[in-house]
Amino acid sequence: MAGEVIVDALPYIDHGYDDVGVRESALAMVEEECRRYRPTKNYLDHLPLPASSPFETPLMVNEFERIQNRLPMETLSMKRYELPPPPSGKLSEVSAWQESIENSMAQLEHQWVRSLNLELMLDYGTEAWKSYLEVFTAMQAKAQLQLQQLKKDIQDVNWQRKQAQTQAGERLRSLEAHWVLLVSKNYEIETECVELEKLVHAARQQLQSIAPPPSANDTAPTPEHTNGFDQDDLAESNGSSSSNPDQPGEDAADADGDSKEEDKPEAQEESSNEST
After folding, report:
1. For residues 80 and 102, what is the distance between their CA atoms, to the nearest angstrom?
2. Bias category Basic and acidic residues: which stretches (predicted)?
């Protein structure tokens, strides 16, 4: 059948994989295959490019453009965490001091938010952590169950494969034994046939050496003339046919004797009547 996979290895019943030289031979075959196989550089050219645009965000688009243009990655800006004073040339400007004040107020607000988060974590972090651990434990238990089921399925598949290969091995061994038996019997039969042919050939040579040469006056009927009968059979048939003509005479004589015996009493009665 087209597309059918022919399995020519039964690991559960085959032996010899750990013998010396088997691994080296397998590696040599792999290296030979690698030397003969020359993959093309762009072996996926016949496939269309994946459509990734629906999943790209603006940040990803900018990052892809930066990578395509081979530009360095921007470093993390720490400016908002700094409190620089106005530049030396703008110390007399009110707007410069106003920007510095706004920056300091933003820094204070950020620190206040951080402290608030820390307070909330102290109050509710333990319970949130416990809840997270419970969810994580449930997820872990579910994953363990799935892992155990997967291992069980793998074990069942391996057991079925082992059972199938064991049955196939027993069948192969029985067929091999039967094949060896048939081959041995055929060999014995061929040997006996050769011996019989030798005996027949020797007997024919012996008969040819013992039989006298045929004379010119020998007119013995051939099997074609006797319709397949031998001379002895013809002689016996001739002897039986020569003896058969006497039998009708005997039967006729017996019949005449009986008729004569039946006529005697009638003759005696006629003579007695005449005397009276």
Report:
1. 11
2. 257-267
Check: CB of residue 162 under 8 Å from CB of residue 12: yes
Nearest to 96, CA basis, from 105, 85, 106, 104: 85
Q: What is the pLDDT of residues 144-179, one digit of tens each?
A: 999 999 999 999 999 999 999 999 889 999 999 999
**Residues comprising the chain, all counted:** 276
DSSP conformational letter for 10: -
Alpha carbon distance 208, 203 (integer Å):
9
Q: Where are the beta strands (DSSP E) in 136-265?
A: none
- SS3 assignment, position 5: coil
Q: Which tens digits make up the pLDDT trace of 98-120?
A: 988 888 888 889 889 999 999 99
The DSSP line for 40-86 is -TTTTTTSPPP--GGG--HHHHHHHHHHHTTPPPPPPP-GGG--PPP
For residues 86 and 96, is the Cβ–Cβ distance under 8 A?
yes
Check: CB of residue 8 under 8 Å from CB of residue 172: no
* DSSP summary character for residue 159: H
Q: State in Å, rounded, how far the first CA of the chain is from the last one.
A: 121
209 Cβ neighbours under 8 A, 6+ residues apart: none
Tokens 């004040």 found at: 101
* 94 vs 142: which has the higher pLDDT: 142
Q: How many helices (H) and strands (E) does the chain have?
A: 5, 0
pLDDT single digits (tens) 246-257: 444 444 444 454
Rg of the chain taking only CA atoms, in angstroms: 60
